[in-house]
């Protein structure tokens, strides 16, 4: 898509909710005249972020000076081989001081770790491009009043950007020359925080749980996402209508999996994922569920974790484990290690899955 001068001029008149975008976008465009779709601009932003140590991958902590966010990240390899989980936290996402992007990815299949890392690498920059273009289109649409309902307009723009991004990432992955994703894939759970709003996009069975303070002062969990398992009626219906099959193996009662019409494969335990092209014609999709939440003073933190955590830890237990960790930099590690111990007690004889978590606190100075 060609972004012309008139769009750049219109962007300079955005309301305060978009302050900073026109500046960063115009600067990158000036350095790259003739850029057709803004992708170079987004990639340049990613490079700048890396140089400034604003991107964290895998295990660690992010606490940028002056930021309202504090993120703790940890991942532990299971007993099935290489760790196929990976994560990312990106402060000042898109060169916007009030924005953060974080995501957790759970690969599966022979090439799952490569697929997960590829999606982690490609999704943020693609999302930035789609977000910039959606903002530009909205600024030129006379039927859209950006000032009338900022919250709804933000959500519409982010949802549209996420839908386009996930479709593009899945298409590009299918044609990647060095990654065989026919029988391999990854889930993706990501969050964008923009000021006092968070936008959650979920593809697969990882889960986001918010910890908020109730009227009596106790912390309670609020599940922000749906675990997209084949056992969900709406998911099973779609798969069956596409001639896929959903059933449990005799030695795994209660674990519903996705199967090809006439073959005992691939046996996926999730109904949405990137990759896995062997079953993309049979009901598996990479369409995200996108939701938003307004963050208030009662909301303390959000946990993003792969199913390796939620298979053995309840939402309430996760909130208690994280809130009870005195050193918040170690909160994700405490949760992951607690899940690993729970695996040994609750799932004896079953190989432990990879276990990963991000704990995103909504305070620059974490609560102790």
Question: What does this protein structure show overall?
Answer:
With 368 residues, the chain is an alpha+beta fold. It has one domain: PPM-type phosphatase domain (Phosphatase 2c, domain 1). 33% of the residues lie in helices and 26% in strands. It contains nine helices and 16 strands. It has helices at 5-11, 21-31, 39-51, 112-140, 150-174, 233-241, 307-310, 315-323, 331-346; strands spanning 55-57, 60-62, 70-76, 85-91, 99-108, 185-194, 197-203, 207-213, 219-223, 245-248, 256-260, 263-268, 274-275, 289-294, 299-305, 355-361. Strands 1, 4, 5, 6, 7, 13 and 14 form a seven-stranded antiparallel sheet that branches. Helix 3 packs across helix 4 (112-140). The protein starts with a helix and ends in a 7-residue tail after the last strand. Residues 70-362 form the PPM-type phosphatase domain. This is protein-serine/threonine phosphatase. It comes from Hibiscus syriacus. Keywords: Hydrolase, Magnesium, Manganese, Metal-binding, Protein phosphatase. Belongs to the PP2C family.
